Amino acid sequence: MSGGKLGKTRIWLFLIDNLETWPGPKFSSGFSCLVSSQGYPWGLGESHFQSDLDGRLLLSEGQYLPLIEVHKPAILPGKLIHKLCDRVASSTLLEDRRDAVRALKSLSKKYRLEVGIQAMDHLIHVLQTDRSDSEIIGYALDTLYNIISNDLEEEEQDDSEEENSQKQTEDLESQFTEIFIKQQENVTLLLTYLEEFDFHVRRPGVKLLTALLKQQGPQVQQVILVSPMGVSRLMDLLADSREVIRNDGVLLLQQLTKSNAAIQKIVAFENAFERLLDIITEEGNSDGGIVVEDCLLLLQNLLKNNNSNQNFFKEGSYIQRMKPWFEVGDDNAGWSAQKVTNLHLMLQLVRVLVSPTNPPGAASSCQKAMFHCGLLQQLCTILMATGVPADILTETINTVSEVIRGCQMNQDYFASVNAPSNPPRPAIVVLLMSMVNERQPFVLRCAVLYCFQCFLYKNQKGQGEIVSTLLPSTIDATGNSVSAGQLLCGGLFSTDSFSNWCAAVALAHALQENAPLKEQLLRVQLATSLGNPPVSLLQQCTNILSQGDKIDRRGSKVQTRVGLLILLCTWLSNCPIAVTHFLHNSANVPFLTGQIAENLGVEERVVQGLCALLLGISIYYNDNSLENYRKEKLKQLIEKRIGKENFIEKLGFISKHELYSRAAQKPQPNFSNPDDMMFDHEFTKLVKELEGVLTKAIYKTTEEDKKEEEVKKTLEQHDNIVTHYKSVIRVQDQELEDLKKQVESLKVQNEQLQARVTQQVSQIQQHKDQYNLLKVQLGKDNQHHSSGNDVVQMNGVQSEEISKLREEAEEWKHKLEQLEEQLREKDSLIEVLKSSPPAVGTSEGSSQTKTGLEVESELHREAETLRAQIHLQTTEIALLQTEKQELLQQMSAAPAPVPGDRGTETADLEGRFTALLQETKELKNEIVGLAEERTSLKQQLDSANSTAAILRTEKSALQQEIAESKKEQDDLLVLLADQDQKIVALKNKLKELGEPVEDEEDTESGDQGEEDEEDGKGERED
Amino acid sequence: MDVEVTQDYQCVGKSCLLLQFTDKRFQPVHDLTIGVEFGARMITIEGKQIKLQIWDTAGQESFRSITRSYYRGAAGALLVYDITRRDTFNHLTTWLEDARQHSNSNMVIMLIGNKSDLESRREVKKEEGEAFAQEHGLIFMETSAKTASNVEEAFIDTAKEIFQKIQEGVFDINNEANGIKIGPQHAATNATLAGNQGGQQAGGGCC
Ligand SMILES: Nc1nc2c(ncn2[C@@H]2O[C@H](COP(=O)(O)OP(=O)(O)OP(=O)(O)O)[C@@H](O)[C@H]2O)c(=O)[nH]1
Ligand SMILES: [Mg+2]
User: Cis bond leading into A359, ω under 30°?
Assistant: First the structure.
């Protein structure tokens, strides 16, 4: 405490006007001083001083000041702080305010309470108003940081009084934090200062926010979350080129992401993985400094229990980037403490991604990725390397375990890994050697056991390979190489109880959920001492179990027996043959009942519980193949020797054991003490599964058993009934199916019919078109018949038109007759002209009626066939309907009251019947609908047919008429031409004869092409 | 009343769309999204392998401040409403303003009318969706996460649009804030898929 000892020291120096007015503080630790000065009312703040032994202070300017040590109360800091605050609040000069804040900063470490209480508001005010001056902002942030942080590095705590006050200050910190964040704007304001590039603002800002988060994490997180882009902006700190800020940024993000999934996701979204992995790479991976450690901790925060982020990490292909972390060569130049820490965190990060507590799908896709990018291979290299520190090796084993757990591909790879020894040995064998080696560290042995368990988890292939190394046919007789099986047997029967336990549990894992292997393992025979016959593995286990106490062992005897009982319970459960083998040895049951019945000490209780479990399993999975050990006999034995209540109580010892629940939590065996290794995770699952059923099985009386048998029988009967109904349902299903098919084909037919209708409609249209065309042609031919011919026909008006046409035809005939008359007249004229005129044939009679009849009969036939078709379809439909009716009746008859007392199944059946009925009804409706549709279609078809018929008749009639008309015309033309010629000839003759010829006749004969006109003229002329 | 309204804006089917796109499954039970959930899928555009990284955001009002953080750094967004609920459509404007305010101005936004399988309960006509999209310069599509109709198209078309913008040089691929990263073998794109005031965002990372 003397100034003399003071070398170069950082001290607080205050110039005050009156020393006597400062009764205050204990400048208790370190060296503190006051310097009096004339006229200066307050302090200098912070500076570096050197003092000489004379108690003088050397100021940096080379000035000396007298130094006064203060032991006695000298000045009240509260008052000083008050004054400073006043200055901050009232001074209009920025420099003044700045100096005042600087002074407050100097005081804030020692007088946290006073500065905090008095200056907090002023400091916040400075942050709000003096934004433009980075210096004052820097001081204010620093001061706030000092008030709020519990960073006591620079403070020396040497007596208990100080410790007390420290506790007080811890409360203070969180109280000040609360005051600060109460106004959310303060945090928001602080966030804006974090965007300020100035080092003196950004750095203290980062530190202050970190401190706030440390004190009141959840509240501050919430404020940051709701402030726009709050989290995202903090991510920019990682991009700061100044390493100090970047590193402080990492620390800030660590606090920010603590147990807040929403923030973790935003930080990940803002590319944190990329940035952090870059930093780690830049810093040299595991060889990097504490920054690497901080980055790894942050990564862990982001990934642990955050499935979304884990998925993003995997999908972003960041797993690949972890691989180089584990490229630690064999040279092992040095394993610094930092490197060990880094590597530890790196391994843990791998485990976070493949933890058995992750959703199965997520973990397995990460496992696959780790195989594909070579990460698993890299880890296995470390596993087999030499010179790796034990704790790294242990954690690597644990990591490999979880990378391969339940993933066949990775398990297969692991099985193929060899240690670089000569000759090469499988890694599994090398690891098992450590597990059963009592000189290896406990945690390492646990890790190997875990690894082995993970290798066998859901790996029937691996289980088979391990068990096969024990089977007589495959044992390597040469003894050159040790097999996994041999090591396990060695462990099982060694004198080290922890080895016993590990080997037993490991072997149990080789049998887990694998009934065929449980039977296989029964074949294993062990050679015992010379001359004695070999003994089965099962027998040997029970032997050791019963003689266990006689063998001298290292470690807890209970542990050995617990291990063996775990193995036996696993082995016998769900394997009646193993139960029979076990019961076959007449010593076993008495041993078990003896153990359970005995009144043993507390530590033996587990053994009692496990014995009860084993006996229970022997009853539950008993197939009654041994007359002496049938189920009911064993139960009687329990009743007699132990008592049911007692038995159940003993059974309950297992799950009530304190170590049981710890094992049940997660697959990794994780106990600090070898003696605590009692339960195995998979085994706790088995216990949970069996506890209830065994209790029930034991409580059942013989009558109940009998009843159960009866129930089973009735159940079987019921099953028969059910089977019967099932077959009925099947038949009905079939029928339903058929009906559905029928409906389907009817639908098809229907469609076809519809298509036909459409076709016919289009035919009709064609006919109509043709008809129209013909009419037009006709119109051209008979232009004077202009009326009505161009009207498009409709079904209803056709008859009318036909009659019109008939009239026209009549007219035609009439005209023809007139023409003929004319001709006759002309003939007679010619006759007159000629004394002996030639005979003119005028007998072209029409055959109209005859052909009309033919067409009619044809149409008749067609209509007949259509009618027949329709008749056929109607009968078809009627048939289907009756069929359907029958089915319906059948169905409604089928689900008659279902006998039997098993309500649910019956109800189920009834439900299905109702459903079937419903379906049938629906089908019926559908059919009715279809029938209706058909009828209407039929009608349509009929009407279409009749229309077609009518049209056809009409058409042919017309065609006929036209043909005839043409023929008549032609004939007439020929006739006329003939006669013209004749007339001309006659005229010529007459001319030759010298008779005068009328001109009129010339014109007439020359215009014969225009018959109509000619006709008209002729008529008029007549 | 207020609470009811906010509750109404969820359940438009964002998570279902994402699940249909990534896993080709439909989940009939509503599993309220808390904050955001991540999903990803590899697609091929013009022969290039592209990993779409998608953030499915919560629609519930109370998560809004969280989901806002995902606009920056997204190359695209899918804005989803439910065609069977007019209120979700009416709310689009608010959402769009929010998204435009917080996102990169080049962000590709696709408007999605989801649940097109529920034609009988339709409240918003397809034409209305089209008109809204036209008015605000968005791409539009009606989808069904249930039948998977148009789901592939919605995501892939958004990605194509982004891809095109990259090729036109609109996006600076060296700026992470755009949500695009070019890897040694694959390009990857960030796209936001957002349902009215909640959405899904897709971000990019390379392989
Ligand atoms: N019929 C139909 N139902 C759908 C469709 N898409 C989603 N749903 C249903 O709508 C409900 C909500 O779907 P989500 O995908 O969880 O909705 P969300 O938008 O993610 O909701 P928040 O996460 O709360 O914002 C679920 O019950 C889905 O089954 C669809 O296309 N058709
Ligand atoms: Mg959702």
Answer: no
